[in-house]
Amino acid sequence: MTRSRVTDFLVTGAGGMLGRDLLAVLAALPDIKVTALARADLDVTDAGAVKEAIAGHDVVLNAAAWTDVDGAETREAEATAVNGDGVANLARASAAAGARLVHVSTDYVFGGTGFPDLSGGAGPTPYPEDAPTDPINAYGRSKLVGEQAVLAAGGFVVRTAWLYGAHGPNFVSTMLRLAGEREHLDVVDDQRGQPTWSYALAERLVALSLADAPAGVYHGTASGETTWYGLARAVFELSGLDPDRIRPTTSDKYPRPAPRPAFSVLGHARWSLAGLPPMTDWKTMLTSYLGAGRV
After folding, report:
1. Is residue 277 included in any domain, yes or no?
2. Structure confidence at residue 134 as a pLDDT band (50, 70, 90)
């Protein structure tokens, strides 16, 4: 991206966990002007309001979303209005204004079984950015509608998963809270993914928005992989707690309205096109988060 003297950013969903981290990352950069709009400030389903908000901006970082995964199972039309139609409004308005749209999506657009290992090895391999989509639930379907609109308008889609951070409820903070309430915690060990610190993702989103990179799909997750059980043990270990207080269990012990993917590991090959390395491994990222005292 060719930068003018000052780059004007619009951050939507600015009041959420990722949105607040985006604002912190942008605040530390020179020659950046930021407009921050939380949910109460901008209804993305209002096409006229979206067009007006985007006018005059160079980059739109969209962290606005319907995030109630289980609620989407019974309210799919409402979820799609935000994650699909609302994102389409952002995509059209960004294209018309000549603004770069960087939109955050999800691993739930995949079926959750992993990409076949074409080399003949055992087990699934990480989903590449161009893997066929097959949403596992209503939330995933709603997010896929948004992805398709962004890509049709020449924007950027960054899929992420298993986010944790300082500014919202998440698995890491829940484990630390429960550590003070229970002697043992039973955590599922049959779902694999890539725990990702929202601040590290925010840094990557901003870097992509300023890079000379081709539009399309990128995967914004930490490198490596683990299970929720493995993550919980790491949280305890890095916090000076006994990791053996975490006991493995299976997903069928915790039924949810929306099915969860068994395998959410994403590949990161496309970052090379943006001149950026893949994000660091999940445990190094978690160590930085806990060490920074941001819990």
Report:
1. yes
2. very high
Asked if residue 246 belongs to a domain, the reply is: no
Provide the number of structural domains found in the chain.
Answer: 1
- DSSP state, 115? B
Residue 252 domain flag: no
> What is the value of pTM for the model shown?
0.95
Residue pLDDT, tens place only, 26-62: 999 999 999 999 999 999 999 999 999 999 999 999 9
Q: Which domain holds residue 123?
A: 7-169+194-223+265-284
Residue at 42 is within a domain: yes
Q: What is the CATH number of the domain that holds 140?
A: 3.40.50.720
- Give the amino acid at 277: P
pLDDT score, position 241: 97
The residues carrying an active-site annotation are 139
% of residues, the chain, pLDDT over 70: 95
Q: What is the dihedral of CA 22, 23, 28, 29, to 10 degrees?
A: 70
Cβ contacts of 248-257, under 8 Å, gap ≥ 24: 248/186, 248/187, 248/188, 248/189, 249/186, 249/187, 249/188, 249/189, 250/188, 250/189, 250/190, 251/188, 251/190, 251/191, 253/186, 253/188, 254/188, 256/70, 257/70, 257/73, 257/74
- How is 192-217 classified by DSSP, letter by letter? EE--EEHHHHHHHHHHHHHS---SEE
